[in-house]
Write the structure tokens for this entry.
Amino acid sequence: MGTNKFVKTLIILCSVLVFACSEREEMNNPFYTSYQTDFEVPPFNDIQDEHFLPAFEKGMGEHNLEIQSIIENSEEPSFENVILALERSGDLLNKVSSVFFNLSGSNTNENLQEIEREISPRLSQHFDAISLNPKIFQKVKELWDNVDKLNLNYEQKKLLEENYKRFVRNGSLLKGEDKKKYADINQQISKMSVQFAQNLLAETNSFELILDQSDLTGLPEDIIDLAGQEALRKAEESDNEQDKNKYEGKYVFTPHRSSMYPFLTYSTRRDLREKLYNAYVMRGDNDNQNDNKKIVSKIASLRVEKANLLGFKSHAHYSLDDKMAKTPEAVYELLNQLWTPALARAKTELIEMQNIVEKEGHNFEIASWDWWHYSEKVRKEKYDLDEEEIKAYFSLDNAIQGIFTTANKLFGLTFHKIDNIDLYHPDAKVWEVRDKDGSHIGIYIGDYYTRPSKRGGAWMSTFKDQSNLDGRERPIVVNVCNFPPPSSGKPSLLSFEQVTTLFHEFGHGLHGLLTDVTFESLSGTSVTRDFVEFPSQVLEHWASEPELLKVYAKHYQTGKTIPEELIVKMVESGKFNQGFANTEYLAASFLDMDWHTLETNEIQDTVSFEKLSLENIGLIDEIVSRYRTTYFQHIFSSGYSAGYYSYIWAAVLDSDAFAAFENSGDIFDAKLAQNYRDFVLEKGGTEEPMVLYEKFRGQMPTIDALLEDRGLNTQPN
């Protein structure tokens, strides 16, 4: 049947218009061209939600063509035409991914969440198709089998090794239906991990404790001000007058830690403390649309199947095979070594708190929601130390000065505020980092305040990683936290725990900034999970050092330096409540390992499994695991499965490392600092972690310094 001229013309016209629109879209998509911005910071003002999916699709298409080109290369496989080609591939995909997944964690919205649900399984499928392609793997394997004949330097050899291991660990040795099954499992896990995280954010944001003035007894003024601001914010965001009216003259507290912990610490209303705390610990376990129980049990089951396909008894055996720990047995050995003294100390702390309850004339037993309130009373009684008095010396700006001073005294780094770079949120700040000789090191972004669009916790990430392969590429590092925003003319005032968190994340940041390697795949924090926490945790030690406190801890109103007597009290109380802190952490680590040492893919009853896990270690009722299963984001959506132990594993290293500085007589010892920079921070993942540690420290670490740091070698006074 023929087509008349009109229809033909219409078809041609429509084709031209589609092409023109497509071309215009490409021209307008900021990901398709080099960033024309200072230091190549992503042009956030130009990036719109609708740019992501097309960029992801184009990026995957380009990546596929690059992989196919490697496969079709008829030349003899070489480091250059296989490994370097792989390293250079996927540039656009990496570019859009770095922006998207940073925003999905720190400044999400419904559009981004929908894109994440769609793109995450597609990305999983995309990378599985590469790792399961026998033609590309054969080329990598041929090179690895002949590695000793290739005349590679240590960094090139490490890159080849990591590529080979990645292919093997991602199923390249699987045959037939097992490959298809493996890819299907990965897609399922990817979908459910995204859903887990989105459920958790929704659940956290859905609960609010709306209070009258009469409900605020015991709360400090700044905490009340923040709660009043939260009520005003919610009123402004409400769509109707009825919702707006319910916040008028009210105060709002939420399960976000920056809101909850101060309330638990100071509120004299035990009934309200219980209500807020239970809202926090029941997240994902309310049998509603945001329930995570079935999701986590299914993820755990699928991980067993995946591990079995790859020849491992459990997910933990698979996960730990390429970590420092190597085996689940080694992890359990460390956890058990610390559990007994930690729990014993926690029980002693509980007795001290119960004594205060009785002194006050109450007849109730301490419960989990009481721990913060009564531990603060014990601290005041034993050390005459008030958290509110401490906070006055730790405004966020002062604490930032503290981390910058530490980096300057250790490594000679300077930080220069930049005001003319547009970022993804008004709260974010940016600095240029320069070396001691004035040369450009990288860009540091700080995004510190809590908000509903940001997931909980604190983390470090990058918008661009360092490499020297094709010119000197300098990193763009971001630290994201959830600190309270300024209120009623007061700056953001931090608890010392929050100050420590800032130092921790900045330690990760320095790892990302100071790395100096050839290949992006090995740069910065691209190290084993149980080593990556070492640089972050070792920097925490400097936060409480009197020498540094006198530099950065200044009263937000008077500008006076923190008094010597307050420093003494802080030092003396440094090991306070460590029984509780270590017990709740170790309980979560045991829970993680128990979920991931399962050797059956039978679906578990999540609540019963968790209960049995914690009963087996003898966790007391007065302490809840730092993370319950249904909101354990580290292990079900953030890459720490069978890896939450990493913090305590790294703590052995960081305590031992800082002991070296202390023993030198100078916590800023120039030689030690240079060794640490040379052999740890700059090296990224180019050598085995323990090799790097020994080069820096000159010896293997011992657990002695950790036990001393945490006061677990003695009972409290």
About this structure: Residues 656 and 701 are 6 Å apart (CA to CA). The first helix runs from residue 5 to 28. The chain has four domains: 47-131+133-173, 207-281, 293-385+580-636, 391-572+646-709.
